[in-house]
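Work Package 3 (structural annotation) set out to generate three-dimensional models for the target panel prioritized at the project kickoff. During this period the team completed the workflow that converts sequence records into discrete structure tokens, so that structures can be stored uniformly alongside our sequence database. As a representative example, we reproduce one entry of 92 residues exactly as it appears in the project archive.
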Amino acid sequence: MRADDPRQVAAALRRRGLDLPARLLLDAHRPLRPLLSQLATFISPGLRPLAGTRLDAVEAALADDAGYDRLLEALDEAVPPQGRANGSARAG
């Protein structure tokens, strides 16, 4: 698995129970992707010791629309099918 693979970020968010909030935030902030990309590049030297290779995946996801879409797809894959069914049953 490559260091810039968005599945690593999605799996880490899933382990912490943050995959659904992250998905909502990414959808809401899509217009800000170019600005977030520049911010990630600016703060990456300070975060590199803490985040390690996951920071590469975040930077790659924010770099262009295709990377952003790959991260969204990885977050969708991280949600188990029963979680989707339960969530839709509660909403209805």
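The two ends are 39 Å apart (CA to CA).
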